[in-house]
Structures are given as structure tokens and as C-alpha cells.
Amino acid sequence: MPIPEPPPAQVEAVASALRGRRWVALTGAGISTDSGIPDYRGPESRPTNPIQYRDFIGRPEARRRYWFRSMMGFRSFGAAHPNRGHQALAALGVPVITQNVDRLHSEAGSREVVDLHGLINRVICLDCGDLSSRATLQTRLEAANPGVTGVIPAGSAELRPDGDADIADPDDFVVPPCSVCGGMLKPDVVFFGENVPKPRVEAAYALVDAAEALLVAGSSLTVMSGLRFARHVAKQGKPLVIVNHGPTRADEIADVRVDAGTSPTLVALASAL
What we know:
Layout: H1 8-18, E1 23-27, H2 53-58, H3 60-78, H4 84-92, E2 96-98, H5 104-108, E3 113-115, E4 118-125, E5 131-133, H6 134-144, E6 158-159, E7 165-166, E8 185-189, H7 198-210, E9 213-217, H8 224-236, E10 240-243, E11 256-258, H9 262-272
Parallel strand pairs: 1-2, 1-9, 2-3, 9-10, 10-11
Antiparallel strand pairs: 4-5, 4-8, 6-7
Helix pairs in contact: 1-9, 4-9, 7-8
């Protein structure tokens, strides 16, 4: 089903709510779908079961499954590029708080970005705290598993929003340990069931408090990590504008609500402001 274009009157309503005000954007997976990265909860999204933090920490087989799928999805996820929506926000020069882990806002040129849920291109050791490149780990994963190519056969799997692929994992897949201390490696992202680090939350609240309006773009606000900022702005009496294809948990408190494609709406908004 085609994602609807924004009606001009609704674009002007968004522009009117933001025009002349300092504002900040809160983005979710819906802004990256035009870059080929699927979302979890859009109207056309397939059901998915993202890995839980407690399973990753407590179950070796869950870690093995995650890293195999991550290895298989890494090349496709890494090939994604910023789309018109990312570029429009960068051109507008507004601060961005993003729930995405794809770094596409920074690649598009946005200068002030809070990556609320971390970045998929980094890996952290849970024992010593060492940060390393995900690309480096990809090389180590492929070297430790010479029978696995790291390339998804056409039509055999689907890329998921966190960069892993929905594909069955082999029982003998080897996950290398931290090259510094031999500890457990984890992508430097916030899994479901894990708390967003306090400094990131504080940085996001600082942007929201310094702004005079909030634009939510491409997020259903299903998880509290994003919803709290919408509620915070509404409680302060500042304009809350939501652009998302499909319902969100903050629709009833939004001053302006646009149910349309995120990228075309942001492009139209950039021209209207």
C-alpha cells in the first residue's frame, strides 16, 4: 500500500506551529524506511521479536543467534544512505533526538544529534568497556566462521530494524570475545528491556527544554524512551507536532497530527518554513 503524501493544508498547519519558534525533532524508524531499513510498528511492518537484553546477557544461544543474524545483515544495513527526510532536517538545521541506531542523521549533515538508543556501528565490551568498530568485528566474525559468507542469499531472509537478518542460525557459529580482555561483546545499542543511559536522557531533555516546540517524525512512540518527551512538551504547554504513517501513543495530546509519509512531509515542510 502506497504511503500517503501530506495534504498541503496539513503541511501548512505543521509549518504554522513551528514557524518563528526554536524546535527540536524526535525521530523514529519511520524516517529511515525510505533508506531501506524496515520499522517495527508501521502499518506495513511484519511482526518481529527483537532480542531482549536479559536474553542476550543470560543465554549464550541467544547471543550466538544475535551475532549470526547481525553478521548476515551487516552489509545490507551498512549500505543504507540518508534519504530526503534526513536531508530535510539537516538543511533546516534543527537539533535531532533519534531513536534510530543507523547514524543516518549525522551522515546527512545534522550537527546536533542525540542517538538515544546508541549506534549500531559500534561494539562495546560489557566487561572492560572497550569500544570498537562494528566493521572490525565483522572481519573477526567472518574469520572465525569461514563457512559463513556474511551475504544473505536472495529471497532467503529479511533485514530487521536493528541491522540483523531474520534467518536461521547454525549451532556451531563462533562469537569472538573482546580482543582486549576476552569479555562479552554487545552492540553499542539499547536493547528492549535495557535502560537508556542517563547522560543521553539528560542531553535529550536539555534539547527539549531549550526548544519552543517538538516535532515527532516517524515514531509510533510505543516505547517510553520517546513518549516521555512528547508528554513533557505537552505538559509545558509547548506545541507538539506529530508526523507518522499510522497511530501513535501521543495522538490525543498533539497540537497538529499528520498521517502521511515522513520523508515527503519533511521535504514539504522545509520548503514551507
